[in-house]
Every structure is written in C-alpha cells, then in structure tokens.
Amino acid sequence: RECSSCGERYREETQTPYWARFEPLAIVGECPAHGLFFRSPAEADQARLKRANAMRPMLPPKEFAINAGPKSADLLRRDVNCYLDLFSSRQLLYLQHAERIVSTFDWPAQLNLALLVSTSLEFNSMLCGYKGASTRRPGAIRHTFAHHAYSFPYTALENNPLYPKKASGTLQKLFHDRIRRARRWAALPVERRFIDGSPRSVPIPGEKDSGEETRRQVDLRSGTRRFLLMQGSSASLDLEPNSVDAVVTDPPYFDSVQYSDLAAFFHVWLRRMLPEGASWDLDLADSAVDPHRNDGPGGQYARVLSAIFAECHRVLKKEDGRLIFTFHHWNPNGWAALTLALKRAGFVLLDKHIVHAENPASVHIANLNALTHDAILVMAPGEIGVSGSWSQPRRIDKGDSFAFCQDCSSVLGWMLDKDLQEIEIEELWFKLLA
Predict the structure, then answer these.
(1) Rounded Cα gap, residues 314 and 235, in angstroms
(2) I want to staple 18 with a disulfide (CB 3.0 to 4.6 A). Which of 57, 85, 113, 380 is the partner?
C-alpha cells in the first residue's frame, strides 16, 4: 500500500494506458524434462515486447468505447475508457489475426470459431491473474471474471492462447472443453441418474440435440426436431397465446451480477467477427437488475419481471403449461419482488425442489456466507385452481442453507395462494427474514 522507504502511498498512473501500466517481472515456461520453470525477462524478451508494441493494431476506439454501467464504472474510475486498453499489444495482434481468419470460414464454422475466440478473451486480458502457486493446479490462470466483476490484479498475467497444448486458457483447451465437448454431447446427450445410490452419467435413448431451424412458430407443428430462435424482449414474444408447454428460465440475481453490462467486454469483438450474427445494440436501461441503485420490491426488478412473467402466462397452455426457474436470496427485498412479479402475472406455486447450487469455494462467494442451495420452482397459471396447497409458515430457518431455501419456497407458495395486498407481502417477508 505504500513505499517502505519513503512512506508514499501507492497510486496508479492513470495517464498511462492500462495495458502499459505493468512491467514484466517473470516468465513461466515448461521444460519437457523438468516441468514448470520461472526466469527473469531477458533482453530478447524485452525486444519482443517492444516490437509488439510498435505493431500494436490501430483499431477504431469508438467501436470499443466503455459505457457507464454498474460494473464497468470500476473501469472508468481507473481511467480505462476503451476495451482495447485491457489487452497487451500481443493480445491485440492475436485478436486482429483471429478476426481475419474467422471471416474466411463459412457458417456455422464461423460462428463456432468466433465464439471460441470470444471465450478466450476471459483468459487473455491484462485483468487476468496467476494462480499457479497452487500445487493442485500449477500454471492455472485466474480469469477476467472470476469475481463476476472487473477486478484489478497487482500482477497481471499475459497468457499465450496459441500454446499448442491443452493448458489453462489456450485455444486448444477451450476448443476441446467447450466446443468439441458440446458437439459430442449434442450427438449423444447424457443426464445424471442415481444408480445404486451413486450419480452416473447415462445416455438418453433416442435423443439428439440438433435439428432444423424454422422462422415461424407454426412450422414447429410439422416434422420433428425443429427449433425457433428469437432475439428480443421476453416481455413481448411473437408467439401465439395458450401454445407453449413449458418456459424454463433463470431470472437475474435481483441486485447483483449485471451480465448485460459485463457482456459488452465480449460483444465489442463478436460484433466485428459476426456483424450479421445478432443485433448488437443493447440498452442497459432495460435490464431487470437496476443499474443505478439497490432495488426494492417496488423497483425495476419487480416491474421488469412482472412484464416477463405476464408474457409467460399469456403464451403458456392454461391446462398444463409450466413456468420453471431457479431462485435463492438472503434479501427479503428479493423474495418480495419475486412474489409481487409472480402474483401480478397470475402464477401459483405447484412444486419445489431444493438442489445444490454453486460451489462455496468459488472465488466470488468464498467466505461471504453465501447460500449453497437453489430452489427449483415449478409454477402454474393460476386458473387451474391449486390454491390451498401451501400452509401458512411459522418461521424460516436462517441457520441452514437447505432449510432456508425450503422454507422460503413454501412462504412464496402460501403468499401466491392468498389474497394479500402488495404492502402485506413486503411486510411479511421483512418480518420473516429480518
């Protein structure tokens, strides 16, 4: 935090582009005979860096400008105003060549390669750190969004994405782990089942995750293995009423993890590699998670989710249609907002299943008293008349993650069954979780 000799406090040289605020300290390599090794940069290494800096691509800064958002504000506070500044010169040269090569392929190879290059950014930016001190995973990389936010390592790591082995963050490893593995699963999908008390991965007979893309909902009714992809607002779907069997989704995490903001880190590159692949103009103001303040039950989260759930209610089959999603939160505001959104849309809770959620060792939740379980909530349109399925709760167990999610789910079901005013719902959640 400060100089041990003069006592001056550390401060960042914000007038220097972010990528240039670091000096090379060490190089890590691998010897076929002796494994990992470390050494200080030599003159030849410094010359390579200097040559790369002289070749640094001059890409249009306007295309990579950083817009203010709840997470990107951390970049702007450090005078990082352009996504290009988050990449070393060699990383930018890699991206420039990748963009040119990807454009020479036909669809869908172009799509898969663009997504591969895009996902490699998470392991190849100057926001990456080194966690190779771990004997369990020597050489591993702390990727850009390990904390679900922009974090700034004191020692950045410049990876080599073209290293020809399956090492941390390389194209080889990412291709096999994310592209090839997904394609194999699509050809022969598997699911986990308990056999003799142990979970096993078993194939699903006759299943295949592929098919023919259609442009209209009516075309889904003829033939098999057809699918329809739409990009747009979930609050306004071009689907017929009373026509959908199930909506399976994962709502935003109430007051955290603004994916819409963080996604711009990837979008600026995908837009160049796949200019016609999607509509790249995004309005953060439409995000369910309010980018400007800690939301309450009457805020943007409840308002946006109400509109989305109302649209789900419109398109679902009223007899046996289902809305299924996961949710957990410590905050009574989150549960109250979810309850209001579902109640306004006309849903009731049909069933609940409590399952293990994220590993508590994950960097962004470690030592934060985070919930380790999720509630899978199965909702039904209220018209089917299942009211009375849930009894009035007495208390919520806040000492156990599983019991907490179980109790909160039951409270949600009871509130949706009862004719409660919105203010009553808010007050009851605060009373139970305060």
Answers:
(1) 10
(2) 85
| Beta carbons of 261 and 69 less than 8 angstroms apart | yes
Distance of alpha carbon 210 from alpha carbon 205, whole angstroms: 15
Residue with tokens 């995004």: 282
Confidence of residue 155 (pLDDT cuts 50, 70, 90): confident
Rounded to the nearest 10 degrees, the angle between the axes of helix 300-315 and helix 332-345 is 30
> CA 340, CA 427: separation in Å to the nearest integer?
12
User: CA-to-CA distance for 123 and 165, rounded, in angstroms?
Assistant: 15
Alpha carbon 314 to its chain centroid, in Å, reads 28
- Residue located via tokens 């100057």: 126
Integer CA distances (angstroms), 24 to 40, 156, 157, 163, in order: 8, 9, 9, 19
DSSP 72-126: THHHHTTT--BGGGGS-HHHHHHHHHHHHHHTTSPTTHHHHHHHHHHHHGGGSST
pLDDT confidence band for 200 (50 / 70 / 90):
very high
DSSP state of 273: H
Pairwise CA distance, residues 280 & 272, whole Å:
10
C-alpha to C-alpha distance for 141 and 158, rounded to whole angstroms = 10
Peptide bond into 32 cis (omega under 30): no
